[in-house]
TrEMBL record:
Binding positions for NADPH per the UniProt entry: K106
Record PANTHER family: HOMOSERINE DEHYDROGENASE (PTHR43331:SF1)
Lineage: Bacteria, Bacillati, Bacillota, Clostridia, Lachnospirales
SUPFAM superfamilies the record matches: ACT-like, Glyceraldehyde-3-phosphate dehydrogenase-like, C-terminal domain, NAD(P)-binding Rossmann-fold domains
Binding of L-homoserine, residues: E191
Signal sequence annotation: none
Protein name: Homoserine dehydrogenase
Superkingdom as given in the UniProt entry: Bacteria
Pathway: Amino-acid biosynthesis; L-methionine biosynthesis via de novo pathway; L-homoserine from L-aspartate: step 3/3; Amino-acid biosynthesis; L-threonine biosynthesis; L-threonine from L-aspartate: step 3/5
Keyword Signal: no
Top enzyme class: oxidoreductase
Cited NCBIfam families: PRK06349.1
């Protein structure tokens, strides 16, 4: 007779919820050996029950939160609905009633994570969110546990599968942006509103979570500079290849002696760098710690089963903690309060593509403006476009954002400059 049955409520049965359901069903006979108990999904909360009638037994399916919060036999609530509300309210009520929570909701954790973790600890509950960052890749547990003995100074990588998929299709197959986005959406990678992916906001939320855990200091989504990929053109991808680079949407967090830098933006990466080969929905996260040195985590950052894998891993962790009476061990690890640097105070190398009047003195005038702002040019490419104008690409050495942008303001007002077509930071 099975003595231990851990009852789970699943909030949401979409891409991720469906993956969780499939994995638990498939692992049914293994779980008793893995966690010393049986796992039962006893309730599934959705908005539109009709949509799931042929997927979930009617007695499990509900559109009423009260069916879950008032059921004391349910010990673990798995939130995979998305959005801030009602997810935040449901999670708080669950924790206050002593129910443990697993979530994939980076929108919520990126703005209320510290408060929710403190609430979980007060109620001796687990609040786990491995799936919230980099999907199926274990990165939260390594930061919270495996690498806790390190002073981590940098976390950077590709942490959005949708945009990585789009850039890969554009770069390798010449696919246009809209077609690649539609494909990513059909594959279940994109957020409910794909603008979050495209404009870098999803990666920004994940980077805020990573930076908070890595540097033990609160970083919220509002602190992160975000720039998306909607302005990246096929021409930029072509010029990047000529420069021996790939264009990727990178999240970069650094703990420097004068504060934390957190920024998400399209980046030109040398094709020799491991991140240049991270394609499709794959993610990769680099960590630098004083003891471990460089470590890289790689895997699928989005999708039904890869994300479901991370959620189920958390559920099994909670089930073990319940079994061995050690829940609520890990609250918020943000015991510092490090200042966040403004993007203007950060340094980068810049690729800038301009359309110029093709006449004598133009390049000298440009070089003069950069020189007067101490912006040193490392490379210049000129592609004649027609008899009057030319495409000119300039790559700078590392320089303060403020110095570079001051130059761009002057250049954009010069008569021989017809257009500043794109600016992309370059990672060395
Ligand atoms: N897709 C991915 O690859 C990844 C997603 N995530 C995160 O996982 C979460 C879920 O994403 P995903 O599965 O793609 O989203 P989907 O849109 O595919 O699914 C959302 C599910 O939640 C249900 N739902 C939404 N709002 C409510 C509500 N107010 N009450 C009850 N049910 C509700 C929906 O029900 P109905 O259909 O009836 O409206 C649907 O079943 C999000 O936080 C997302 O950011 C994290 C990592 C990867
Ligand atoms: N939309 C997200 C889903 C996983 O977090 C992404 O594309 O990475
Ligand atoms: Na993860």
């Amino acid at each position: 007779m099975i003595q231990n049955i851990r009852k789970v409520a699943l909030l949401g049965m979409g891409t991720v919820g469906g993956g969780v359901y499939k994995i638990i069903e498939k692992q049914k006979n293994e779980l008793i050996h893995k966690i010393g108990a049986e796992l039962e999904i006893s309730k599934v909360l959705v908005r539109n029950k009709g949509k799931y009638a042929n997927l979930i037994a009617p007695e499990k399916l509900t559109d009423q939160w009260s069916d879950i919060i008032e059921d004391d036999s349910i010990e673990i609530v798995v939130e995979v609905m998305g959005g801030i509300e009602p997810a935040a309210t449901y999670i708080k009520e669950a924790l206050q009633k002593g129910k443990h929570v697993v979530t994939a909701n980076k929108d919520l954790i990126a703005v209320q994570g510290h408060e929710l973790l403190e609430l979980a600890k007060t109620n001796h509950c687990d609040l786990l969110f491995e799936a919230a960052v980099a999907g199926g890749i274990p990165i939260i547990r390594p930061l919270n546990q495996c690498l806790a003995g390190n002073e981590i100074t940098e976390v950077m990588g590709i942490i959005n599968g949708t945009t990585n998929f789009i850039l890969t299709k554009m770069s390798e197959e010449g696919m246009d942006f809209a077609e690649a986005l539609q494909l990513a959406t059909d594959l279940g990678y994109a957020e409910a509103d794909p603008t979050a992916d495209i404009e870098g906001h999803d990666a920004g939320r994940k980077l805020a979570i990573l930076a908070s855990l890595a540097f033990n200091s609160p970083v919220t989504f509002q602190n992160v500079y975000t720039e998306g990929i909607s302005k990246i053109s096929a021409k930029d991808i072509r010029y990047a290849h000529e420069l021996g680079c790939e264009i990727k949407l990178l999240g970069i967090a650094k703990n420097t002696e004068d504060g934390i830098e957190v920024k998400v933006h399209p980046t030109m990466i040398p094709q020799s760098h491991p991140l240049a080969a991270v394609n499709d929905s794959y993610n990769a996260v680099f960590i630098h710690g004083d003891a471990v040195g460089d470590a890289m985590f790689y895997g699928r950052g989005a999708g039904e089963l890869p994300t479901g894998s991370a959620v189920v891993g958390d559920i099994l962790d909670v089930a073990r903690n319940i079994q061995f009476h050690c829940t609520g061990r890990i609250g918020s690890s943000c015991y510092k309060n490090i200042p966040i640097k403004d993007i203007k105070e950060t340094k980068s190398s810049y690729y800038v593509r301009m359309k110029l009047e093709d006449r004598a003195g133009t390049l000298a005038a440009l070089a003069g403006v950069f020189g007067s702002n101490n912006v040193s040019i490392s490379m210049l490419l000129q592609k004649t476009k027609d008899e009057k104008t030319a495409d000119v690409v300039i790559v700078t050495y590392d320089v303060l954002e403020k110095q570079f942008m001051d130059s761009i303001i002057v250049i954009s007002n010069m008569s021989m400059v017809k257009e500043i077509s794109s600016i992309i930071r370059v990672y060395h």
